[in-house]
Amino acid sequence: MKFDEIYEKKSDKVKVSFEVFPPKDVEAFAQLENTLCVLKDYSPVFISLTWGAGGKSNQSAKLISNIRNAGFEVMPHFTCVCSSKNFVEEHINDLEKYGIDKILALRGDIPDDKSLMCHDFSYASDLVSFIKKKSNLNIAVAGYPEGHIEAPSLDFDLVNLKKKVDVGANAIFTQLFFDNTKFYEYVEKVRAMGISIPIIPGIMPIISKKQIDKMTNLARISVPKNLQAKIEKYQNSPADMKKMGIEYAQNQCQDLISNGVNALHFYTLNKSSSVKEILCNII
Question: What is the pTM of this model?
Answer without folding.
Answer: 0.94
